[in-house]
Amino acid sequence: MSIIDEFVKSHPRSKQLHERALAHFAARGVTHVGRIWEPFGPYMTHAQGSRIWDADGCEYIEYRNGHGALILGHGHPDVVKAIQDQVTKGTLCSASHELEIEWADLIKGMVPTAERIEFFACGQEANMMGIRVARAFTGRTKLLKFEENFHGWADELTSPSVPGVVSKETRVIPMHDLRALEDELSTEQYAVVLTEGGGAHMSGQVPWDPDFIRAAGRLAGKHGTIWLLDEVVTGFRDGPAGWGGLMGLKPDLTTFGKSVAGGMPAGVLTGRADVMGMLAPRTPPGSWIPHSGTWNAMPVVCAAGIAACKLLRSGSVQRQVNSTGAYMRQTANKALRECGYNWRLYGRSIIHLYFGPVDFEVDDAGNPPTRDARKMLAGGEEKQRLGLYLLQHGIHTHQGRMFILSIAHTKDDINRTVDALVKALGEAMADGSIGELPAQTP
Ligand SMILES: Cc1ncc(COP(=O)(O)O)c(C=O)c1O
Fold it and tell me: How are beta strands 116-120 and 267-271 bridged, if at all?
């Protein structure tokens, strides 16, 4: 029986739900493009800690973790209590309240570049406002971005080639192309340059070269362009001051999301007081940016954010999750090497799966086993298929591409996952659904 037939057979309730969903949701029945699975994904009912359960009663070790938002794991008691307490006092008061100040205090305490703070309903909204304040501040309109860097689905944030996108003012250049960066910035027409924290795709499937990112910041400053560092994934995950803090970066603007609100929907724009000052009412009317938004700083979200930030501010959560990541990489890569498989795990607390020629072994910092970005991004279909085998072994990944870790994951979880990974790869290769690659780059 093929893996697809096996999955369908063992997930009758998810199949029923998928068939119902097809009548509602145009994107093959799902509500987020990253939730498309072939033939369909498991329909989840509940989650706790490092576990998630589906409608067919299957239990999984959970490595999607709210698209990266749940560094604290599912249902962390402090966050749950904060939400419960606040729900009974009022979810939305559409007026100023103390919790928004307390949350902002905590964020400022962690992020040295956060001179001012603005709250949003999600990460991409924070990026959209970052672009607007940069334009208003510089009096320029053009926007520079890097290939593969993800910032959201709005016109200026997503790929200009997506149907329906209008992005006349956006230019996208390859990552690490210093010449292209200099050529563009030296025109002195760019309001803003956007970079994703850590590198492209969820904390660095294609990591940034630290020298390049520093040069990008310097060049932006030299040419009067605002540098926006998008830490929606890496913020409060890589460390209390985010990836930028670890690297000692000083972007003009930084955006946060995901972990900052403990799994509740939020986005945060932080940065220089003069740039953020474009949001301040002044005369004449029309010379400043009015920011509305029904869900901005919703009390129940602030309460969750406060609880999360209190847990995240010392850095011990991030150290623990990074050390779980190191254990996972080392254990898995040893097992994969011993089996002679051309797969490797790399990354810090979001572990990326690599399928390709191993140019050198993954190092202690979790850098990928090649410097070639195309190789890091290759094997999407194989990874998806492996993801299905992993589901059958009780492992819920981000489409076979990523293991997103949380503080709830134990060594035992990781050992079970590594066993499952080796078994799943063996099965996929044995039935021919995944082929082998040459062991080394020729
Ligand atoms: C780096 C990055 N920026 C921005 C966003 C958009 O955040 P949100 O989905 O909260 O709008 C995402 C979402 O995954 C992201 O990964």
Answer: antiparallel
Residues 6+ apart with CB under 8 A from 229: 195, 197, 242, 243, 244, 249, 251, 253, 254, 255
For ligand 1, whether the C-beta of 40 sits within 6 Å is: no
Q: Which residue has the tokens 């972990």?
A: 259
The rounded distance, in Å, linking the Cα atoms of 236 and 315 is: 9
The residue whose CA has the least distance to atom 2 of ligand 1 is 151
Domain 3-73+318-430: which CATH class? alpha beta
Q: What is the pTM of this model?
A: 0.97
The backbone torsions φ and ψ at residue 256, rounded to the nearest 5 degrees and listed phi first, read -130, 165
Classify 118 in phi/psi space as left (phi over 0), alpha (psi -120 to 50) or beta. beta
Q: Cα–Cα distance between 187 and 15 in angstroms, integer?
A: 54
Pairing of strands 51-54, 44-48: antiparallel
Which residue of 232, 301, 401 sits with most ligand 1 atoms within 8 Å of its CB, as the best mutation to test the pocket? 232
pLDDT tens digits along 401-414: 999 999 999 999 99
- Retrieve residue 399's tokens: 């489409």
CA–CA dist 12, 274 (Å, integer): 57
Bridge partners, 355 (sequence order):
343
Residues of the chain with CATH 3.40.640.10: 77-312
CATH code of the region 77-312: 3.40.640.10
The boundaries of every CATH 3.90.1150.10 domain in the chain are 3-73+318-430
Average pLDDT along the chain? 96
Q: Nearest-5° angle of CA 292, CA 295, CA 300?
A: 145
pLDDT above 70 for 365: yes
Query: Atom of ligand 1 at shortest distance to CA of 258?
Result: 10
Q: 233 CB under 6 A from ligand 1?
A: yes
pLDDT exceeds cutoff 70 at 439: no
User: Confidence band (pLDDT; 50, 70, 90) for 286?
Assistant: confident
Q: Whose CA is nearest to atom 3 of ligand 1?
A: 151
